Amino acid sequence: MKTSLFYRIALFCIVFGLGFIGCKTKESEGRPKKIAIVISTLNNPWFVFLAQKAEEKAKQLGYESKVFDSQNNTAQETDHFDNAIASGYDAILFNPTDADGSIVNVKNAVSAGIPVFCMDREVNANGVATSQILSDSYSGCVAIGKYFVEILNKKGKYVEILGMVGDNNTWNRSKGFHSVVDFYPGLKMVAQQSADFDRNKAMEVMESLLQAHPDIDGVFCGNDAMAMGAYQALVASGKADRVKVFGFDGAEDVVKSIQDGNILATGMQFPEVMAQTAATFADEYFKGKRDFPRKMPVAVELVKKDNVENYAAYGEKE
């Protein structure tokens, strides 16, 4: 009798449990898919643009979306991932804060069944993210390096202002630049310092570098925000006419500065392409696709005085 009662209770629990799971599955299938857009920082117009384009494309494809600002803080980024997992987001479009420190967040999301599509920045782990859509920073800075050599006539002293040391883009850009410039013994790098991709910090770094090296001829900056900060410092010191500044990104103020003959060149990235591709990949994932490129490079174009009229902020003119 007791055994029979036990089996009845057990059977009831199994049936009830299966029914509950079935209801949850139907509820999940019936609601609109949600996409989290986790961005390293919204304190930079370039990343604001990236986030906006990702959000626009997600909504255009019919999905709910929300942008999360990690404020260049991996702990804040972890909170966003935990929130996305707990809140039932179905995909994450991701711009990492740190190539190594962000790996665990991607792993946690994927383990929870949430695909992660990296935009612009990557994580240092093969096969962790569902796909990584990245600017070809190395090749873009090879082109900048060649133009740098040409403008400085193969000789002179220069400084390099790096971005965030934990971001692979920082080193890909630096390596691309040096793969050209280091072959010219007449060009001497007298200082290399990080300014974390930040305009105000770059201005302070440039002010300090000018005190130590007042006779430099050029500055290579790992992004346009830092290029503008460096240029401000050069203007304040009265050296803007002599020292040549080179950036990377394709930001609106630098495009205008090139038109005005102030900053010499930048590498034009295409954040809209990266954002739209990531959102499209998420859409394809929802529809059953699983075969995505682990890394998808997006070409970078050299923008300088003689072709700047073909470009606007973050891309070509329409």
Automatic annotation (TrEMBL):
Subcellular localization: Cell envelope
Record's keyword terms, sorted: Membrane, Signal, Transmembrane, Transmembrane helix
Gene: rbsB
Protein name: D-ribose ABC transporter substrate-binding protein
Gene3D superfamilies in the record: 3.40.50.2300
Residues in the signal sequence: none
Chain ranges of the Periplasmic binding protein domain: 35-289
PANTHER family linked to this entry: D-ALLOSE-BINDING PERIPLASMIC PROTEIN-RELATED (PTHR46847)
